[in-house]
Specification:
2 domains, 61% helix, 14 helices, elongated, 7-stranded mixed β-sheet, alpha+beta, Butyryl-CoA Dehydrogenase, subunit A, domain 3
């Protein structure tokens, strides 16, 4: 078997993961396939002898291809005579069903509001637990700026910039209802509040405490929280509804919630002390 055939076999093992990344970034089945194919072309031409983590290398490559495609799509949309491709495709029920399964119906409605770099940072960080230094390398910025991109994207997804006080109250109601359902072990109520494609992500410090790095899907996230969070207190985290678990008057774990419509599409568990110290935590009563 030739080296290229061995490499092709290794690529095929990663193809489902790469398609998942591309679909969530692009929101388009055939564009995702194009991005994955381009990643194979680049892999077949590259010298990967010194690459220790081929999956990570391929994820970076396909993410860069997707970023270029998003930027090209944005440029095309500046022409008012051209219908954005994702809007045209949404009329196909089969395609819409595939995308709904891939990224969750609520998230499908809001990703197009994000700029290319924001969208990529949001998807890679919140859905695939890609670190900010890695995202920064893809986007061509600093880790701090990459974190800001993801935060700004999250705020846009939540609609805080446009919907005002009414939307803020609605999001707080969703988070409060989730915490109450979690404390009471109400599995059905938790499911009703979670988007089917919801993701729960824990930072490395949280993983050290025993949390899973990434949990995907409403059933799995509801199972994780059912009967728990009894000691979590509602707070505003950087101006958006969240929760903290404190010990000795010091916040030890923070939970941020990304809400779209009336459902939670992402939960971030933050346990790193330095990160928590940098958050603006305002108690809610």
């Amino acid at each position: 078997m030739s080296d290229l055939e061995i490499l092709a076999g290794r690529f095929e093992q990663d193809r489902p993961h790469l398609r998942a990344v591309a679909r969530r970034i692009l929101g388009s089945e055939h564009e995702a396939d194009d991005a994955v194919q381009e990643a194979w072309v680049r892999l077949s031409r590259a010298d990967t002898a010194a690459v220790d983590n081929l999956t990570g290398w391929l994820t970076t490559v396909v993410s860069r291809v997707c970023l270029d495609m998003l930027r090209s799509r944005t440029a095309r949309r500046e022409d008012p005579a051209e219908l954005p491709e994702t809007v045209a495709e949404a009329a196909d029920p089969e395609h819409e069903a595939v995308l709904a399964d891939a990224i969750g119906p609520a998230l499908m409605l809001v990703l197009d509001a994000l700029g290319p770099a924001e969208r990529l940072a949001f998807v890679l960080h919140d859905m695939f637990a890609v670190s900010f230094p890695e995202i920064a390398e893809i986007v061509g910025t600093t880790p701090v700026a990459a974190r800001q991109l993801a935060s700004r994207a999250r705020r846009k997804v939540q609609g805080s910039a446009a919907d005002g006080a009414d939307d803020a109250a609605r999001r707080r109601a969703v988070v409060d209802a989730f915490l109450a359902a979690s404390r009471g072990g109400d599995f059905g109520a938790l499911l009703a509040l979670l988007d089917p494609g919801v993701v729960l992500r824990s930072d490395p410090a949280g993983v050290q405490f025993g949390a899973a790095a990434l949990v995907r899907g409403a059933d799995e996230v509801a199972t994780t929280f059912a009967g728990r969070a009894r000691a979590a207190k509602p707070v505003l985290i950087d101006g958006t509804p969240g929760a903290v678990w404190s010990q000795g008057g010091t916040a030890r774990v923070a939970f941020t919630f990304t809400v779209a419509g009336d459902r939670i599409i992402a939960i971030d568990l933050i346990a790193d002390p330095e990160t928590i110290a940098g958050l603006d935590l305002q108690p809610l009563t």
